[in-house]
Please model this.
Amino acid sequence: MDWTIPDDIQSFVASLDAFIEAEITPLEAEHPQFFDHRREWARTDWERDGYPRKEWLELLHEMRRRSDAAGFFRYPLPAALSGQDGSNLAMAVIREHLVARGSGLHFPHTDEHSVVANLPVALVLHAYGTSEQQERWIEPLITGAAEIAFGLTEPGHGSDATFLETTARRDGDDWIINGAKRFNSLVDQAEVDLVFARTGGRDGKAEGITAFLVRTDAPGFSVPFNHWCFNMPSDHPEVHLDDVRVPAEAVVGEVGRGLDCAQLFIHENRIRQAASSLGAAQYCIDRSVEYAQERVVFGKPLRDHQGIQWQLVELQTDADFLRNTLHKTAAMMDAEGKTAVTDKVAMVNMRANQLACRAADRAMQIHGGMGYTRAYQFEHLYRHHRRYRITEGTDEVQLRRIASRLFDFGRRPTTTG
Model:
């Protein structure tokens, strides 16, 4: 069967490229310190615990404003949010394409900033928020006028989210929250934090966990420090909640069903992370092939050495196999729903993130000493995509999810003896 990317997606990508060249690349050129070998230093406020520098955030906001005005930024969002209902397949193609261009203002590898939106918290509020929450937060989230942090991970619990130690108890019409969060992304920029706390049920069970919108300036909400990470700048602070009082209307979704919100967030991100990592891998492969064509070693082009050829052939073979499975999985998500192919999403997420790291490592090696410098993007791509092997579920969690479907865990009776 002859399969090609649908015409409407190809047309959108072509229009997006034209917009980037006309509006975003010139804007990037006006601020070279954020994109050349100085990028990490220039983007990071080293005197303010490693958070993003104000000037960098302002540039990202201008990129978003231009993309939104041109009609590209909201593409994947529902029509109810002024989006174009972009499909999972379309977003897989777009994300890979953007990153395969290399890191730049169009996709700077700083959190999830991009000329095409990735706003899972807005989708969470659209699906589970009250009308008041939706009216207050969704449009400001889209325009960048507001941020909402995401507080799920804890000092003692990362992938095992059903074992949360943060608790919330009723006090009249209010809730009192106590606990701690780790890598609580975007707290430095956010007015509110989407905090997950156990309000009932048993450890190890999803039921009984509730999601709350907690103001970051609330009494008892504190940020003792910010984690400096492999990829800087970092907005992944530690958060303490000591008798933080929130009203009943702060609950997002149903009491005791907060992990529904978290699952929507994660399922939205995993397939897009995979596409981004595939794009990063392809960028590293393409640049390495170009270099091997030009570089002469021991009297002949680098491309003529089988040791170099085969490394790149192996990487390109893996990339092509992954691309086919990624597109098929994204199309199945569109047809059957996000959770119907959760094992396939785990497969492409794990393999794509691993491939990005391998390709960046090989690119550094093939480019020699210069490949190790920040004159090239390979180290930057490696540091960012190495994070993806932990966030939204570690490699091991992806394997566990695949095994759950493969061995039918949860649907067959447990045996003993």
